[in-house]
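Reminder: ligand-aware prediction takes two inputs, not one.
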Amino acid sequence: MITYSKLLSAFQLGSLRLHNRAVLSPMTRTSAECNGLANQLMVRYYTRFAKGGFGLIITEGIYPDSVNSQSYKNQPGLADKEQAESWRPVVEAVHREGGRIIAQLMHAGALVQHNEFKPIAPSAVKPVGTMLEEHGGSGEYSVPDAMSKSDIRQVIDNFAHAAQRAKQVGFDGVELHAANGYLLDQFITKYTNQRTDEYGGSTENRIRIVVELLDRIRSVVGQNYTVGVRISQGKVNDFNHKWANGINDAKIIFEKLGTACPTYIHTTEYKAFAPAFTNGGPTLAKLAATYGGLPVIANGKLGDPEMAEQLLASGEAELAAIGTSALVNPDWVNKVKEGIVLNRLEHQFLHPMATLREDEIGM
Ligand SMILES: Cc1cc2nc3c(=O)[nH]c(=O)nc-3n(C[C@H](O)[C@H](O)[C@H](O)COP(=O)(O)O)c2cc1C
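Here is what comes back for the chain with flavin mononucleotide:
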């Protein structure tokens, strides 16, 4: 019988002691109040994963400002004191169960799924694909306004203030969402970033805003606070995207992130264990570890605990983030410990709501 000795072993992530290496991957729930306040439904939702044994919980993407960062209706915010305070019961409930919880900060950029404001982005490029219907959007995306330098400074300020608010209400850390096609990934991605200033052009320039943001957040939250950054190649609206210069781009991106001293890098790929570029080549997680020199959380099809154990045991990453399998197994870690068969994912559970019923998932 497999003992999952790596997956179930404790890990020191910066100043945070984690009971094990299983992380709840961030998943949008669109279950907040329409003014962005977290609520009791969300308290119950997040508590399940703490009770279920996850060493670390990363929240859904939370918008940092009330100007233009909100992607979805009923997405929660950390844009002001009231929104921040609404998270306190969530954080306290998770802590009561012995869990750790990190707030993911996410700016939509061009990927806004509603018509309440004009989106902003590095360049005025209409996103490919169509809005996500399950997340409340429909039809084509709007063409965003290209950000001025003062918009960039404002966005950096807004993120930093949101990080500060997250710390004030007791979150154990913050994760900067620079993946999956949202604002920061729009800067990293060549075809959505056509700028000719120091934030566009070369890969070094396209990662600049993320590095500046990490530096700024660090200066606000202090050296010992946990600050992560999530990176991907694929996007919610362009699933198969790959960085044009392969490993050379990975080297530049992860080295630059490493210089900003986040606590960890979180990589997400469709399959965490698959080569990032060419057959037989390294995974994105391994490239992040090699060039970033930091602990790595790997994500992508690790819901089978044997795959997660293998990935961790082979040194590809220190932590494994579990997404969809956790939705049907909020007690994923406890089940793995006890050798209980995991529930299989049915499509209805992919709906981005925090309303999973205990009887449906066998809790
Ligand atoms: C409904 C849903 C919402 C998601 N929302 C977010 C999000 O807010 N932030 C984020 O970084 N990733 C988000 N993701 C991506 C997941 O964190 C994860 O990367 C993805 O499910 C792949 O992991 P898995 O193979 O373990 O399911 C979401 C995924 C799903 C299914």
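The mean pLDDT is 95. The chain has one domain: 11-361. We will return to this case in the review session.
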